[in-house]
Structures
1.
Amino acid sequence: MVTIISGTNRPGSNTLKVAKYYQKMLAQKGLQTNLLNLEDLPDQLISSDLYGKRSAEFRPVQEMITASEKFLFIIPEYNGSFPGVLKTFIDACLFPESFYDKKACLVGISSGKYGNIRGIDHFGGVCSYLHLHVMPLRIHVPAIKTELDENGDFFKEDTLKFSQEQIDKFISF
Ligand SMILES: Cc1cc2nc3c(=O)[nH]c(=O)nc-3n(C[C@H](O)[C@H](O)[C@H](O)COP(=O)(O)O)c2cc1C
């Protein structure tokens, strides 16, 4: 099972649009995926699912993570790093079995110039701790507001080229 994780719970996020775009591209190449939108986490996550607690609402999310072998994380830049809600989600998942010796592919996006280079590096450190093997080709998409057309698809030549290369590599990773 392959799961795409949209790495923010901000309503109307560009991250979710990019996650859906990747899901569509992967489906066109024959790979069906789950999409976990962090907006769907329990509202009470910090009191209901940390430090050994488990809510009925989070249980299906945990089951999906446990059953997944490969993950594609779409991660926006928030204050020079990845969003706190993404780390809280990781902290809520069972350790080590959720991510241990599994595979991940990382996509950084930002409204600014850097495409979340630092946040992807920071998240790569978390992946190392988790023994989650990260695919070498990471994609950074700056100025995300100029990158998506009215259907939520990438349309610029370079972005299409590098995202397609990443998608092909992810399928065979
Ligand atoms: C809390 C917060 C912090 C942000 N910090 C940065 C930042 O450090 N650098 C940047 O380029 N954009 C920053 N942004 C803008 C996001 O990169 C922008 O909203 C982009 O669309 C990706 O986030 P989204 O998926 O929430 O839309 C921030 C947005 C939020 C909500």
2.
Amino acid sequence: MRKHRRNDGGHTGTTPPRDLPGGPELASRASALTKTFGVDDTRVTAVDAVDIGIERGRFTAVMGPSGSGKSTLMHCLAGLDSVTSGHIWVGDTEITALKDKDLTQLRRDKIGFIFQTFNLLPYLTAMENIVLPMSIAHRKPDQGWLDQVVATLEIGDRLRHRPSQMSGGQQQRVACARAFVGRPELIFADEPTGNLDSHAGAEVLGVLRRSVDELRQTVVMVTHDLVAASYADRVVFLGDGHIVDEMHTPTHERVLERMKRFDATTRTT
Ligand SMILES: Nc1ncnc2c1ncn2[C@@H]1O[C@H](COP(=O)(O)OP(=O)(O)OP(=O)(O)O)[C@@H](O)[C@H]1O
Ligand SMILES: [Mg+2]
């Protein structure tokens, strides 16, 4: 098993404090977060009264069976989806209390997204896609940082290409560059390696890990992949809309053991 660089300095493995909205050590926090879809007999509670704190400057993975609410939780934390009840903070700002316009601005300024399906605009080049969120926010990318991101992700020879002219791995690296370029406070990634081969996936995971260790970024990643989860500092396990477990400094083997327990539960119910 390859070793990943990790920043464990001062970590005690205790649950983050929940009494303060935000707080210096929490980049994001949710309290009694519930999200339901549908009405009456089609009603589904995707996320059920979840309390969670996302530690600043750390890499958090979210795992759990299909349908356990991982994407829904992430979309709510990122302000991409409304909540049915409960409260969410990004830093000190309660995003569940924001008007749409303010929420859009906060997302633009403070949050980066990486999706399984890349979500690049097909009629823009790679470089135009990378800088688009910053252009919309009337912010100018730091050229040195942009160059560093492009070099790290090895997409320098693809910057004038459109998404249809790139492989999936290249498209995802462009999507990562787009998320990194504004140096957001929080990066959310939903199965970022789901459509990549193991080599391209390892590159993306290495970049996420380094963004935490070297740039003090905060990354939250939903994944099904045991190897991907082992890059994180902490894994939060979701089952049926609830947080059922968490693990600090995970290894591939320990995550596998924990996921097997979900399979056993599923088989007996
Ligand atoms: N837009 C929606 N409308 C209705 N139900 C939804 C919607 N989005 C999610 N759900 C339901 O909410 C539950 C949680 O879905 P979610 O997509 O969050 O799961 P997940 O853990 O991300 O699953 P996967 O691993 O398959 O991506 C599921 O039962 C799903 O069918
Ligand atoms: Mg999902």
